Amino acid sequence: MDFQLSGWNFSKFIEEVVSPFEKLFNIFKELIVYTSGDFDEAIEWLRELDKEYKLTDENYTIDDFVNDLLTKGYVTQEINPSGSNELLKISSKMEKVLRKYAMDKIFGKIKKSKSGNHKTNKSGSKNHDLTELRDYNFGDSIGDIAVTETLKNMYSRTGSSELNLIEDDLVVYDGQLNSQMSTVLMIDISHSMILYGEDRITPAKNVAMALSELITTRYPKDTLDIIVFGNDARPIPIKELPYLKVGPYHTNTVAGLELALEILRRKKNNNKQILMITDGKPSCLSLKDGTYYKNSVGLDPKIVNKCYVMAKIAHRLKVPITTFMIAQDPHLQHFVKEFTKINGGKALYAGLDNLGGMIFEDYETNRKKRI
């Protein structure tokens, strides 16, 4: 039964029914990222969880779930190179689901925008694609009034359908002048990302998937390039993110920054930034002869100074670097503080639980100003 009170509509709450497939699917999405896309390992984990927490019953088993994954196109069958049996692997459809799942979990439900909107202090044309609203101020253009939201305010205030507007009901679109943003996201894949019994690479992968989905759906005119760095640095396609693993690598921060700046130099728009997720100190440099200079003990001045040079170069190119530190070491924080001071960027000390929220907030903040 529905009823109305002072402009509000009320109806009976209907609890959402989750199917057995959806219940297992939500767990599977977490496991497949944790296992870096290894389907067999993820299903093995799921079976163990089923034994402990009774996730299924005789009406719907884990085998039924696997069959549904195949039927729905989330998993594909491939021939084993040995020819002994068939391999099950996640599909491109599943990769897309994982990116959207990460975005919804970290950033919340975000509507798609028609263009890549970033606020800037340069002249340009306003538009109302942005969903940001604010109260009316004297002098605002009548054309900027958000009619639907204004009428909702009036109806909620009066509880009547009669037209009875007052100034307090008025809201306007917070129209902004637009620019575009080019972002390079750097992810540390050195061995320290899984040291001390703490999984740091999985949150980093989830953040990267969420950010890539955010940009491609809400800001499609923006660009996002993703770099991983260990002993060396290399760009990776978005589709590779669920399969990302750490290696027995040192941390060649300089190589990552050099590649990031090389990518950004090719971008035509003026707004550029680097977001770097790392938990370890820089401990490696590439040498001209193809070998590496490595030192994991303390902060090596030779490596640190080269990082400072890269920070200065990025500053000269007007590319701010935001460093997200997943570490508490005071000596390392001192290095990051000095690095940030030279670059003019930001340093954010993030725990694993709030890493995604901090990156989203930083990205949204940067897009609202001229960089």
Secondary-structure blueprint:
Elements: E1 3-5, E2 8-10, H1 20-34, H2 39-53, H3 62-71, E3 75-79, E4 86-90, H4 92-107, E5 118-119, E6 126-127, E7 133-135, H5 147-158, E8 171-173, E9 176-179, E10 181-188, H6 201-218, E11 223-229, E12 233-236, H7 253-265, E13 271-278, E14 284-286, E15 292-294, H8 301-316, E16 321-325, H9 330-343, E17 346-349, H10 355-367
Parallel strand pairs: 10-11, 10-13, 13-16, 16-17
Antiparallel strand pairs: 1-2, 3-4, 5-9, 6-9, 7-8, 11-12, 14-15
Helix pairs in contact: 1-2, 4-6, 6-10, 7-8, 8-9
Q: What does this protein look like?
A:
It is a single chain. The chain is of the alpha/beta class. It has 3 domains: 71 residues; 42 residues, no CATH class; 188 residues, 3-Layer(aba) Sandwich (Rossmann fold), CATH 3.40.50. It is 38% helix and 19% strand. It has 10 helices and 17 strands. The strands form 6 sheets. A 6-stranded mixed β-sheet has the order 12-11-10-13-16-17, sandwiched between helices. A 3-stranded antiparallel β-sheet has the order 5-9-6, with no helix packed on it. A hairpin with a 5-residue loop joins strand 14 and strand 15. Helix 4 crosses helix 6. The longest helix is centred in the middle third of the chain and has 18 residues. It is flat and about 80 Å long.
